[in-house]
Request: fold
Amino acid sequence: MFTKPSTILATVPDTSRDIGGDEAVSESVTKEVFTSYVCRSRAQRGLPHPGDIAEASSLGAISLPDKEYPLWDSLPEEVVTQGKLSQLQLEGVFYACAKHLEWLPNGERAGFFIGDGAGVGKGRQISGIVLDNYARGRRKHVWFSTSTDLSIDATRDLRDLGSHLNVINGCKELDKEQRAFGLAKDFQEGVLFLTYSTLISSTQKRSRLDQIVDWVGGEEFDGCLIFDECHKAKNFSCGNVEKSTKVSLYVIDIQKKLPKARVVYCSATGVSDVGNMAYMSRMGLWNEGTAFADFKAFFDSMKTKGVSLLEMLAMEMKAEGKYVARGLAFSQAEFVEVQCNLTPDQVRIYDSGVGYWHTLRAKLTKALDLTLTESREIWKHFWGSQQQFFKLLCVSMKVPHIVEEVKQALENGNAVVVGFQSTGEAAVDVLGVQPGEECGFLSTTRIMLKRFLELHFPVRMDTKKPGAKPGEFVHESREVPECIQMREALLNTVDRLDLPSNFLDELVDKLGGVKCVAEMTGRRGRIVREGRRKIFRLRAKPDSSEMDSLNVRERNAFMKGEKLVALISDAASTGISLHASRTCKNQKRRVHITIELPWSADKAIQQLGRSHRSNQVSAPLYKLVSTNVGGERRFVAAVARRLQSLGALTRGDRRAASGIDLSESNFDSPFGRKSLRRIYDSIVQESSSLPNGVDLGNILKGAQDLDWKGVFDKNAKEPHRIELLHRRLMGCVDMMGVGSAGQMYHNDNIAEQKVPGGASSSIKDVGDVRRFLNRLLGLPISTQTILFNYFAGSLEAEITMAKAEGRYSEGVSDLPGRKITKASPPRAFWVDPRSGLACIQNEVTIDRGLAFEDGVRILELERSHDDDSGFRSSRHPIMGMILYMLAIQKPGHKNTFRVFRPNTGESYFDMQRDDLERKYMKVSMADAKDHWDEVYEKSLTTCMHGMQCPQGQDCQAGKRVTNVTILSGSVVRIWGCLEKVLTSHEGSLMRSDRQMRVVRVGLEDESHLVGIRFPKHLLGDVKVTLETTQAEQTWSSEAASKRTVASSGENLGFRKLEEVAPVNQKSFKKAYQAPRTVLDYFGMQNSRKVAGQSAAGKRKAGDEGTGGHAGKRQARESMSFGEENRRVGGNGRLDTESLDVLVSMGFDRKRSEKALMLSNGDIERAADSMLS
Reply:
């Protein structure tokens, strides 16, 4: 079977991969992205959660640590036994409270991150954390969120747990309750609910931040500091604080001012990029006692390490007990990508817009020369406006297709949610259209063009004073007539352009008007059809309570089934529920159509979550609609890239962010940037050849109507056609202003590319995929198609090459095998001297062989009727023998095959059709069986080199049974060292070992192990490198003496733990006892009155011989006024009975209506708020 090693080396030096010898243990990308969530921690009390909850499979393989915390002492028994907090919600509360006992080395209390998605109940968990702390005597807590309206939800969550804590809605309530001798008693404690906008605001006297810190008691405050929807604090610019948002800076600042606060970060989309983690200072990832001195060091290390490191980071955070991330399963939801092909008329409209922008760019360049205007900012506005123009144009051109999709869904008995971002309201504001004015449907794109010309087209020339400083001008300036004429000509041309109307007004009109469509957006007014007229109408009266509750009323109309189409923008994408709830009348299945992707991944997740929540009758059908415009891929690419980072950071798997897989649309990757540089090189050099792996026919596909002579001439020689193609594309690159062509246009490839001396650098620019795809929108449709096909083909070739060389990772991979066992007990490979956390070395033994019967089963299961899957044998002897393998054609890939071998199972590397056909031929199952079985049996004990192999039994090449080393535990802290050692030995490693990949192993005992696969023979080099690095750093002897490290790596080193505070019975009682209010008095009076009427009724009924039944019935139906009000309170509805009660007590009707809305129908709170 196997030949001598000398023969192998002499005759076939490069064919070891054909029998699996070039791979250690092959991996397969984990198909199970999600797994059902199972509570396996100590917090296993309570009832199961009412919903199908899932967790990323990579996180599911990681167990939460074994912790102790007396949570059950502080919660009433009914909270647990009646399911007011479900089992998994109790688990979140348990671990948050336990983590808050821990202190970080820098003297701040450790924080906790609730990364749960929609349907889990983040608000309930926050309420449970607050109640536990209140019961232990910590009576002040701060809860930040995105909107004041969400205070109603916070109050509801607390009330649902039986609590009556006072929720103070904002600092204005504190201002109102300020007395001569301080705050009113009821406002000196409780939950202060604030928005992030309030945090960064100030009064004439002081900042709200200082007011909040004073209210909680300063730096000694040890209550809860909740950052709900914490993704609002993400925009921190590392190394350039001036570019950071005020919210991110203030969130970081308040945590510094309150070092003892119990911080909880809460968001399903808390991290969409490593650079957005700066506000999570309490997670213990940087600062003293960690591997990173500050956030900048953490960011610099993480940003270059790839998504695999982020996946490990999420898993480590869970393993350390400071992070949970569960979510409603997407198993029943469906995802469809729909391509809307432009009609010939739409193509003509688009191309006329391209021509206009090209003319505008030329005239703008001339105007800048004539007026001597600084061009830097103007070109930024130019490219930004162009991108927004074509984005809106693409959205508007989808309207006919969307209308058909919506009507079809309604005919099928569904309800429809249409998601988008912008509304075009700013255009109406610019024109100053008044309510009631007849104006027709307005074109947002037309107004945008005019706005750019009026604001940014230079027509005046300023003259510098002699000897004046840079930027200093005389007060007088003169107009340049030629520039004025150019601007007027451009404005006149805009009026003649055939541009579509505002897409939102068009949608509402074509779907039946405002009576049929529920619009949940932030715009104040809209243009509606009234007969033959199109009139601008306000959606609600300005400065009234109608504006506050407008989206709520529209949402209720949709949920009741009064309207079956809902339009939702970014303004309504947080907190609102549009799912097929079991508690609402409209239980039709939702079809969620996304016509405009948001700029950020977290907003995309927020919007998708509106129609997919717990307690739903059916899961939604998602449809992502895009046009065939190549440049629109930029928006898909942007979100895909963020979704991968978001999934890796918050779910432990780059594919687990939303349930929808856009990974193939992630063009902005290292491979995408390299591919872009390759095609720029070919274009600039006017090369007569294409980059390796790129096919000319695929580039020209879909653009046959383009009049490029010679390029489409199939009779001409291909090198000549390619050279002509590159000449044509050079002109396109010139139009886009990217690459080397950007140097021709006054630095209009944006100022960040400037280098000393005034020249424009294109080195970074030629690899900027986002800029390439942005500018691609400004080309004619056919030209976009060609250039995008070229880029996509180059990227596919680059990825294929990377896979062949073992440089490509698609996410968490499974190590498959017939039998996987632990070869030895796990042991600590390295213990971080600063945190005491250990990296664990695991040795597993894997039987990776594939029996013939299993191969047949795979073939029958995965083969399509018209593909080329099947068993094959080598055309010529390889290493002295004919080899057999199973090739399965990948779905959707005509030329790519998965490969299975009897000795090594499924290969990690795919095989291309050309390579497969050249080396192998098809054979029948019968012909393959005997040879397959022979290799399967012999490879159990013999390597690929045969019995005479010099390494003997130590050689693992080609063996069925092999050993694999997996590093788990604290890997992130030593990632850089592992990568450095791996890179230095890359040339001597097998392909599958050349890159660090996150793998998951299912062991025989049904447990799972997740970690980094690493060559065992290199661990010695790693340890030497780590010891050298440690020796170069100086650590104080005092700190060293505090480090006590256990071999398991679970010891927290010098992180001290705080003792649990006992339950304060007075605080516990107050938390769950309803406060007495003025309504209690009215309730007592009403009870007495009802009792008197009931007694009179009994006497009357008895006198009439009825047995007193009427009196008893009246007594049963009549309850105390206060009890009736409490039943009405919290139901979320504004009913006329509650309103009439408040009016009968002497309150103004309009004030009562608003108070009831803000209190979610709670009469007591409404009355109290008006009395105060």
